[in-house]
């Protein structure tokens, strides 16, 4: 009888340890979000920049885009002066997306990519102007992994350098 009670006790202890190990994989933090009742309340979801321990946020967003801003539709005029500028943010799949832009985009005149070349030619229909500013179309014109500030200052001068001053669009 004692042997059987020891086996049952051992089985319960093993089950408890297994549950603790699984819980650590599911909820590795000190406070498990799955077990907190506040996680289900709307107040917990309202501010994604609020720290769990209620300390002031380290990151405060500078640009608060509304849902309308994010879901708006923009018509791209390839025959006009419209320009797509691809800002490559490292470690976010940017190389794959940049290749997709030059190889697979469905436009009136897509980019021409030749086998063995890293850069593709992305000219507007009937013109020798580019409609895409990215490392796969213009190369590293603004430097390696240029950020927003570098691109804002660099792109207009690089793209418009070949045009007469009176023909340059305001960007």
TrEMBL record:
Its EC number is 2.8.2.-. Keywords: Glycoprotein, Membrane, Signal, Signal-anchor, Transferase, Transmembrane, Transmembrane helix. It catalyses: alpha-D-glucosaminyl-[heparan sulfate](n) + 3'-phosphoadenylyl sulfate = 6-sulfo-alpha-D-glucosaminyl-[heparan sulfate](n) + adenosine 3',5'-bisphosphate + H(+). It holds the Pfam family Sulfotransfer_2. It is found in: Membrane. GO terms for molecular function: heparan sulfate 6-sulfotransferase activity. InterPro entries: Heparan_SO4-6-sulfoTrfase (IPR010635), P-loop_NTPase (IPR027417), Sulfotransferase (IPR005331). Its main location: membrane. Transmembrane segments: none annotated. Residues 1-24 form the signal peptide. GO terms for cellular component: membrane. It is a single-pass type II membrane protein. 6-O-sulfation enzyme which catalyzes the transfer of sulfate from 3'-phosphoadenosine 5'-phosphosulfate (PAPS) to position 6 of the N-sulfoglucosamine residue (GlcNS) of heparan sulfate. Belongs to the sulfotransferase 6 family. This is Heparan-sulfate 6-O-sulfotransferase. It comes from Syrrhaptes paradoxus (Pallas's sandgrouse). The gene is Hs6st2.
């Amino acid at each position: 009888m004692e042997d059987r009670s020891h086996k049952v006790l051992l089985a319960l202890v093993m089950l408890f340890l297994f549950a603790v190990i699984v819980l650590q994989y599911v909820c590795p933090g000190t406070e498990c979000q799955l077990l907190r009742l506040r996680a289900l309340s709307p107040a917990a979801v309202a501010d994604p920049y609020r720290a769990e321990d209620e300390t002031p946020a380290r990151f405060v967003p500078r640009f608060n885009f509304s849902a309308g801003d994010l879901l708006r539709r923009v018509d791209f005029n390839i025959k006009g002066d419209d320009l797509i500028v691809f800002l490559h943010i490292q470690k976010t799949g940017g190389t794959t997306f940049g290749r997709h832009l030059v190889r697979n985009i469905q436009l009136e005149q897509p980019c021409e990519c030749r086998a063995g070349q890293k850069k593709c030619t992305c000219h507007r229909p009937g013109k020798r102007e580019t409609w895409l500013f990215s490392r796969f179309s213009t190369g590293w014109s603004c430097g390696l992994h240029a950020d927003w500030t570098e691109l804002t200052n660099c792109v207009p001068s690089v793209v418009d350098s070949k045009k007469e001053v009176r023909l340059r669009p305001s960007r």
